[in-house]
């Protein structure tokens, strides 16, 4: 079967990407190694620290946090207590801590990168035109694909896991920061300008405070997406609950898979409610 | 003394600026220009001067470019061409730092929808201008508190804007502007979002303020009555151009062209004004709570011989006269409801003034203005006649 379409030679797209990857890996070897070694050290220290906290203390701290975050209502603290006890009871505490570690770094780095990017996007039409399609690309490309460069750059383990999670989890924070700032009523922006505010004053005194709710919604989404990357990241050797899910899948163990899955759900619900209440608290 | 001079200032929004400017010169209308070039004429070739200490009103219908014009003065909108001088300094060529200094120290703006920052308390709102200047906290607090005190709102300083009525919010907006002690106040439809009674009150306050502090005020409005009431000079705008500048008297007696004439004729007050525009604050008592002694006390205080009776929800019930109240006191009656008269005339708030006139002609009491059953205000005979008389002045 030949068609007119076949007369065109195949564009070596895959080869190009491979070449680019190779170039990146060799050119920035030192940089990647630096991040890899220090990142690994940092995350392992955090992991050791988290494991050094007696589970009882950790659970109590989380319950207290939930109690104050939910403005002294009892629902969330009770759920936190029961949920975390269940995870401990199932012998998944070390995995939970590793997962928590992964999410912590992925989320914090996403926020550190995401908010300034979002601000840039809100302030410059050119930046928006470039960043918006990039974000679309980042969100629609299957998450597994990110594992390949992650491994190429950083080997296996938690660090490439964080890298892949950031790419996947970053967009909501960027988008919502952009949206939040653009949604600030025009009259308030004019008011800030008319009193002679500098750009920085306007940003910190008017725009960011007014965009706060929207930005917090974005951060919440980022945390949730980071959590959803846990299983994917475990494929490249990131420790944690994801690995249990993955191995249960490979061995067709429904029970083990369910227990690890439900532990992830418990963590997700706690983190979701906590990040949501951060916003409500100050209003 | 001349404070502000605007020379041939134009603002064209959009891309084909040159073509649009050429079309304006051919006296094409705004819509035609938009159709042909895709550019919108905001303001075209506008020149005027404002003297120190006067209230200069820029008036026009919506879309006439008046809000754009006021924003050109502090360059919230960049002019396409032309020069703007304040105390001889050319605003339109200033660099960013110099412009910031002018905005911080020389002119403050008051906005139609108040422009208050919702996450800041009234005090924090009021000190905003001083804060961005970098004034130390204690000093700016003191000034902001002083400004709020002058606005009669010091007690509310720790509240947030959404906890206040529109009138109070705009008082804060004005206090914020005055806290900066600017020489120039830019007021963009500052009272347009307020209801008529409050608006009138704010106009009076502004005039009183002007007697005390002597700012140079640029006041934007679409309301000719407001313009006539407060303006030392009035500029009338249409399609981005100033058609006539003069005192209120000039504009009413010598309209520059047919447009101005028709605009002025539109101020046939009896046709335009409704009950809402001429009503005054009702002097009322809560018939469910207040007894005859309270009623008499209030009549003495307000120097009236009749009170409008309402219930707890401000629904109109009727009226009580001084004789009734005295009688009730004599009889030792505590409840005034037995003395209530219900033969009071009512009109809806959007009733036209000549219809109000027909009602009030026979009425023995003030006419109540209601919305549903709720009492909004009252109309007294003198006011209607005064309003109609003004109409004739305008028309003649």
Brief write-up:
Chain A is an all-alpha fold. Helix content of chain A is 82%, strand content 0%.
Describe the model.
The complex is a heterodimer of chains A (283) and B (396). Chain A has helices at residues 13-27, 29-52, 55-69, 75-89, 93-123, 125-140, 147-154, 158-182, 186-194, 199-228, 230-234, 241-250, 254-281. Chain A is globular and about 55 Å long. The model of chain A has no long low-confidence stretch (mean pLDDT 87). Chain A has one domain: Orthogonal Bundle (MetI-like fold). Helix content of chain A is 82%, strand content 0%. By secondary structure, chain A is an all-alpha fold. Chain A is built from 13 helices and no strands. Chain B has 396 residues and is α/β, with parallel strands linked by helices. Chain B folds into 2 domains: 2-106 and 182-267, P-loop containing nucleotide triphosphate hydrolases (Rossmann fold, 3-Layer(aba) Sandwich), CATH 3.40.50.300; 275-395, CBS-domain (Roll). In chain B, 42% of the residues lie in helices and 23% in strands. Chain B contains 18 helices and 16 strands. Chain B has a 6-stranded mixed beta sheet, sandwiched between helices. In chain B, strands 2-1-4-5 form a 4-stranded antiparallel beta sheet, with helices on both faces. In chain B, strand 7 (184-188), helix 9 (196-213) and strand 8 (216-221) form a beta-alpha-beta unit. In chain B, helix 1 (17-25) runs antiparallel to helix 2 (30-37), helix 7 crosses helix 8 (166-179) and helix 17 crosses helix 18 (381-395). The longest helix of chain B has 18 residues, at 196-213. Chain B is globular. The two termini of chain B are 34 Å apart. The mean pLDDT of chain B is 85. The chains are: A mainly alpha (283), B alpha/beta (396).
């Amino acid at each position: 079967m030949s068609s007119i379409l076949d007369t065109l030679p195949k564009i070596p797209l895959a080869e190009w990407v491979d070449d680019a990857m190779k170039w990146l890996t060799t050119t920035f070897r030192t940089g990647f190694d630096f991040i890899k070694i220090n990142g690994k050290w940092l995350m392992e220290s955090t992991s050791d620290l988290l494991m050094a906290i007696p589970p009882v203390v950790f659970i109590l701290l989380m319950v207290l946090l939930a109690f104050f975050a939910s403005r002294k209502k009892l629902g969330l603290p009770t759920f936190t207590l029961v949920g975390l006890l269940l995870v401990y009871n199932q012998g998944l505490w070390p995995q939970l801590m590793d997962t928590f570690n992964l999410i912590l770094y992925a989320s914090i780095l996403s926020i550190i990168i995401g908010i300034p990017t979002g601000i840039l996007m809100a302030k410059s039409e050119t930046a928006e035109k470039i960043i918006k399609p990039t974000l679309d690309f980042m969100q629609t490309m299957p998450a597994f694909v990110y594992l390949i460069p992650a491994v190429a750059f950083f080997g296996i383990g938690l660090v490439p896991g964080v890298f892949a999670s950031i790419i996947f989890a970053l967009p909501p924070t960027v988008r919502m920061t952009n949206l939040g700032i653009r949604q600030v009523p025009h009259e308030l922006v004019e008011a800030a300008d008319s009193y002679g505010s500098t750009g920085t004053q306007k940003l910190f005194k008017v725009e960011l405070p007014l965009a706060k709710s929207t930005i917090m919604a974005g951060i919440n989404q980022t945390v949730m997406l980071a959590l959803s990357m846990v299983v994917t990241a475990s494929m490249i050797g990131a420790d944690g609950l994801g690995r249990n899910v993955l191995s249960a899948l490979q061995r067709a163990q429904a029970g083990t898979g369910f227990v690890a899955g439900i532990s992830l759900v418990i963590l997700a619900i706690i983190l979701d409610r906590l990040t949501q209440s951060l916003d409500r608290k100050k209003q | 003394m001349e404070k502000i001079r605007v020379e041939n200032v134009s603002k064209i929004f959009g891309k084909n600026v040159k073509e649009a400017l050429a079309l304006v010169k051919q006296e094409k209308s705004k819509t035609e220009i938009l159709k042909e070039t895709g550019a919108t004429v905001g303001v075209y070739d506008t020149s005027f001067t404002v003297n120190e200490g006067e209230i200069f009103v820029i008036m026009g219908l919506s879309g006439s470019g008046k809000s754009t014009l006021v924003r050109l003065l502090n360059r919230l909108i960049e002019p396409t061409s032309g020069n703007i001088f304040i105390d001889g300094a050319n605003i339109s060529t200033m660099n960013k730092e110099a412009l910031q200094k002018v905005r911080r120290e020389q002119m403050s703006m008051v906005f139609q929808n108040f422009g208050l920052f919702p996450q800041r308390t009234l005090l924090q709102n009021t000190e905003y201008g001083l804060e961005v200047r970098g004034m130390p906290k204690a000093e700016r607090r003191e000034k902001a508190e002083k400004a709020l005190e002058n606005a009669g709102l010091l007690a509310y300083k720790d509240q947030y804007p959404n906890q206040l009525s529109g009138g109070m919010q705009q008082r804060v907006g004005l206090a914020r502007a005055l806290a900066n002690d600017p020489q120039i106040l830019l007021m963009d439809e500052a009272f347009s979002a307020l209801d008529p009674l409050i608006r009138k009150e704010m106009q009076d306050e502004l005039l009183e303020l002007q007697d005390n502090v002597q700012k140079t005020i640029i006041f934007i409005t679409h309301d000719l009555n407001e313009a006539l009431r407060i303006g030392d000079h009035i500029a009338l705008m249409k399609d981005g151009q100033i058609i006539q500048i003069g005192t209120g008297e000039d504009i009413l007696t010598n309209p520059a062209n047919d447009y101005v004439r028709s605009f002025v004729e539109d101020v046939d007050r009896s046709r335009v004004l409704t009950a809402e525009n001429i009503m005054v604050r009702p002097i009322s008592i809560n018939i469910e709570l207040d007894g005859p002694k309270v009623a008499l006390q209030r009549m003495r205080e307000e120097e009236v011989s009749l009170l409008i009776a309402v219930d707890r929800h401000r629904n109109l019930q009727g009226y009580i006269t001084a004789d009734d109240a005295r009688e009730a006191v004599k009889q030792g009656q505590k409840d005034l409801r037995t003395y209530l008269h219900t033969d009071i005339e009512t009109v809806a708030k959007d009733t036209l003034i000549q219809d109000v006139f027909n009602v009030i002609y026979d009425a023995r009491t003030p006419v109540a203005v209601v919305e549903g059953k709720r009492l909004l205000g009252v109309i007294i005979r003198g006011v209607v006649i005064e309003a109609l008389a003004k109409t004739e002045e305008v028309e003649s």
